[in-house]
Amino acid sequence: QGTTMATCGADKCIKMWRTTNLPSLDNTNTLLGCNAGVMSIDIDERDHYLVAGSNDAAVRLWQVNSSAVKSQFMGHDNKVYTVKFYNHSQRIVSGSHDRTLRLWDVRSNKNIRTIFARSSCHDLAVLSEQGTNIVSCHFDKRLRFWDERQDTSSHEMLLDGRITSVDLSLCGKFLACSCKDSSVIKLIDLKLNQAIATFTHDGLRIGEHTRCAFSPDGQYIACGSGDGSIFIWNTRTLKREEVPKMHSNAVVAVKWHPLGQAFVSVEKSKKFFVWTGF
C-alpha cells in the first residue's frame, strides 16, 4: 500500500518505517529474531505481514506491528537469499545458496514443495498470484521459469553473467535482470521470451547482491553501483537519466514507492537515501 517500508542487513534486525510524510521517514518498529544477517524481505499486499530470509538458513514471518517472530520455516541448508509472498500472502517461496527453492504454507507452517534448481538462487519474482509462474535467477547465469506444481523448470534463459536480481514490471509483461560479470541490466519481454534491451555504463559496477528495480509505471529501471552511483534508464527512450551522486559506499539495493513519487537507495554502510522528483 506504500505506507510502510522495511530495511534489513547484517545487524540481524529489520527496521520498519512509516512513509506517509515523504521524504521524511519515521522508525515505527524493529523486528527481532534472526540469528544472522538478513538478506531479503517482502511485505504482504496489505502491509500486515513481513517475511525475511536470513544467513542462518531460516525463513521467518512477523506481523509488522509486533517485534516477535510469528512463524519460522526451517529446511534450507544454507543462506536464504530471497523470499516472496504469493497466493494472496497465504504462501511463501524462498531461494537459497543451497540451490533449492522451497514453497511454504503460511497457515500450516509446512514446506509443501522443495525444488532442486541446480544453482544458487539469488532472487525470485512471482509472475502469477497463484504460483503457477515463478522465475528464479541464478549464479550459473540462467533465469529459470517454474510452475509450483512441477519439479522441473518449464524453460530457461541464459544471460550475460551471474544474475544478482530479477524484478517484474507492474504490468506483468517485462523483467529487469542485473548481471554481475558484465555489469549490465537486461530488459526481458516475457511474451517474446527474449531480451529486448541492454543497459550499461562505464561506471556501473554490479556486485554479488545488487538489486535493480522497475518504477511502478515501468518507464524506468534503477540500479545501484559499487562506487556509490545510482543509474536510472528510461525503458522507452533507452536513455540514461542524470542522478546526483550522494552515496559514499556501494549501493546494493533500490526500491520505488508504489505510487512512483519516490524511491529509496541503500548502501553497505547502514545508510539510505530517499529520492523524490523522478
> Which class do the helix and strand fractions yield?
mainly beta
| Poorly predicted sequence stretches spanning 5 or more consecutive residues | none
Distance between the termini: 19 Å
Strand content range: over 45%
Which strand order spans the largest sheet, edge to edge or round the barrel?
Answer: 4-5-6-7
Q: Give me the strand/helix succession.
A: EEEEEEEEEEEEEEEEEEEEEEEEEE
The gyration radius over C-alpha positions equals 17 Å
Mean pLDDT: 94
Choose one word for the global shape. globular
Fraction in helix: under 10%
The number of strands is 26
Number of helices: 0
What composes the largest sheet? 4 strands, antiparallel
Notes on the structure:
The protein has 278 residues and is mainly β. Helix content is 0%, strand content 51%. It contains no helices and 26 strands. The protein has strands at residues 4-8, 14-18, 26-31, 38-43, 49-54, 58-63, 71-74, 80-86, 91-96, 100-105, 110-116, 121-126, 134-138, 142-146, 155-158, 163-168, 174-179, 184-189, 194-199, 212-214, 220-224, 230-234, 240-241, 251-256, 262-267, 271-276. The strands form seven sheets. Strands 4-5-6-7 form a four-stranded antiparallel sheet, with no helix packed on it. A four-stranded antiparallel sheet has the order 8-9-10-11, with no helix packed on it. The chain is globular. The two termini are 19 Å apart. The model has no long low-confidence stretch (mean pLDDT 94).
